[in-house]
Design a protein that fits this description.
Layout: H1 2-19, H2 23-41, H3 43-49, H4 56-66, H5 73-84, H6 91-106, E1 108-115, H7 121-135, E2 138-145, E3 153-157, E4 160-163, H8 166-178
Parallel strand pairs: 1-2
Antiparallel strand pairs: 1-3, 3-4
């Protein structure tokens, strides 16, 4: 998937540069891109957009018809660019890259916290506060439970992973013993 994100990055950066002066617009663009990414990620939509019998105009009309939110002229132009360059199906990766740029501008990051057991709100708040000091960013935590970790937690912030789970420790011990 790294290759797709590499292709998607220039589109996300260009869109971000075009709308970043609209401070309140970043949130609306983020929401619109998220919705368009969900539509583009649907199997039936992907098949329809790849149909060789459709021309670019028909692809654009089909796609904009599936998006529930109003599509502004700027959004329509962006979609037209993606259709013309055969990149419309990269919308999930473009939306992801756009979110990263938005978080970077805001000085925030998404923190994915995976715990072996359910965590109380106080534990999440305490952990998030410690992680914010470590990373120097305001974090938006998303917590999931994965019993396969056996114990402990795994935290993913951007491309950094902090893994203090029992599963990771056992894997490390296994690797040490087999080396």
């Amino acid at each position: 998937m790294a290759e797709l994100s590499t292709i998607a990055r220039p589109y996300a950066e260009a869109l971000f540069a075009a709308v970043s002066d609209e401070r309140q617009g970043l949130e609306s663009w983020s929401a619109l891109l998220s919705e368009m990414a969900q539509v583009a990620g649907l199997h039936d939509v992907r098949e329809a957009l790849n149909d060789p019998r459709l021309n670019n105009g028909q692809r654009l009309e089909l796609f904009t018809g599936l998006v529930k939110s109003p599509v502004t002229e700027k959004a329509r132009n962006f979609l037209q660019l993606l259709v013309d360059n055969q990149r419309i199906l990269l919308l999930p990766q473009i939306a992801e890259q756009f979110e990263l740029l938005k978080h970077q501008l805001e000085g925030t990051a998404q923190a994915q916290i995976i715990s072996a057991f359910p965590m109380a709100e106080a534990q999440i708040a305490e952990l998030t506060a410690g992680l914010e000091k470590k990373f120097g960013l305001k974090l938006k935590p998303t917590v999931t439970v994965d019993a396969d970790l056996i114990g402990g937690i795994r935290v993913i912030v951007g491309d950094q992973v902090l893994d203090t789970s029992v599963q990771a420790r056992l894997a490390s011990m296994r690797d040490t013993l087999t080396a």
